[in-house]
Amino acid sequence: MPPDQAYVYIMANSRRRLYIGVTTRLAARVQEHKTSAHPNSFTARYNIRDLVYYECHATISRAIARETELKGWLRTKKIQLIVAGNPVWQDLSQKWGKPIDPFDESNLRPPETFR
């Protein structure tokens, strides 16, 4: 039976080198990248560890089609996609599995912009 959902994701390193992938198990796949589970891989070679973007799709075939589309884009368009949802290039997986702090409105701050 095929999985219920699939993900297209973009990982980056501190120098903004990008890797685009597809998976049905996002958390496990990101962990593989972070720990260099495949030491001869592109992500291990270039120390690509930060999940900076991802999308969820209903089927693996749709996710693969989207991955192919993104890989065909110019680098500037890929960066625009990342920055639209993650302007500071935060590692989106950083807090996975950690307790969530209660909401406190006093912690809100205005959005940051690039100049």
Structure in a nutshell:
The chain has about 120 residues and is an alpha+beta fold. The protein has a single domain (about 5-95), classed as 3-Layer(aba) Sandwich (GIY-YIG endonuclease). The protein has helices at about 25-35, 40-45, 60-70, 75-85, and strands at about 5-10, 20-25, 50-55.
What does this protein look like?
The protein has helices spanning 26-34, 42-45, 60-72, 75-85, and strands at 6-12, 18-23, 50-57. It has 115 residues and is α+β, with helices and mostly antiparallel strands. It has a single domain, classed as GIY-YIG endonuclease. The longest helix has 13 residues, at 60-72. The mean pLDDT is 89.
Distance between the termini: 49 Å
Level of helix content?
Answer: 25-40%
| Main beta-sheet annotation | 3 strands, antiparallel
Order of helices and strands: EEHHEHH
Q: How many helix segments?
A: 4
Which helices and strands, and how do they pair?
Blueprint: E1 6-12, E2 18-23, H1 26-34, H2 42-45, E3 50-57, H3 60-72, H4 75-85
Antiparallel strand pairs: 1-2, 1-3
Feature tags:
single chain, 115 residues, alpha+beta, GIY-YIG endonuclease, three-stranded antiparallel sheet, 4 helices, 3 strands, 18% strand
